[in-house]
Hints:
35% strand
Amino acid sequence: MASQAEAASSDAGYLQVQTTTDSRAEAMELARDAVAARLAACAQVAGPIASTYWWEDDIERAEEWLIMLKLPADRYQQLADFLTERHSYDEPEIVATPIVAGSPAYLSWIEDETRPE
């Protein structure tokens, strides 16, 4: 079975990674810190959103904030490790979706902003 990083970067050059958290403050902090660490070129926080999910054999409902981060696929594992380490959830959602098309200038910007100088 392929590792998470291999699966995330198999065909896509760029990804949108999403995670959720239960507070706006944590979402804003994770977003800012990921961008400051150059793990993502940008992060958008949306919410609140209504989430319904299974947790510990019961259906839960919660108000959450969604964080969407744009990055080159080769930065996925570093971002996933960062989110796992800093996230308040025991098992945070970390889902990567390939960016299959985008303006060349925007994709170049993602690349440039995630490479430390």
